[in-house]
Design brief:
Elements (H helix, E strand, L loop, with lengths): L2 E5 L3 H13 L3 E5 L2 H10 L4 E5 L7 H8 L7 E5 L4 H7 L6 E4 L4 H12 L1
Parallel strand pairs: 1-2, 1-3, 3-4, 4-5
Helix pairs in contact: 2-3
Length: about 120
Amino acid sequence: MKKILIIDDELSIRLLLREIIEDMGIVVSEAETAIVGLQILKKEKFDMIIMDIQMPQMNGLEAVRKIRQFSDTPVFIISAFSHLEDVVGNLGVKVEGFIEKPFDIDELSKKIDEQIN
């Protein structure tokens, strides 16, 4: 069974993503901070990570840098920022994709399906 970890400090976003992803038949785990997400990733293996960029304590880019030290799990960044791809690329952070808020459910489902299947 495929597994995705959602890392986002906004409960409403985590719940919406969980509903969409579970409807696809995928198991979901959640973390409300990047620090908690890193702890989970060190214990469990996932097929994909969906992570917000702006979070308290540690932002998403910093978290991706730490994740890349021990995992090559595909990471998709979700953010309301436009041109985020350029910013992330210029900072030298490797992510597999971007999901812009507000996101289209069909587009999100397609990106997830393409990445993990």
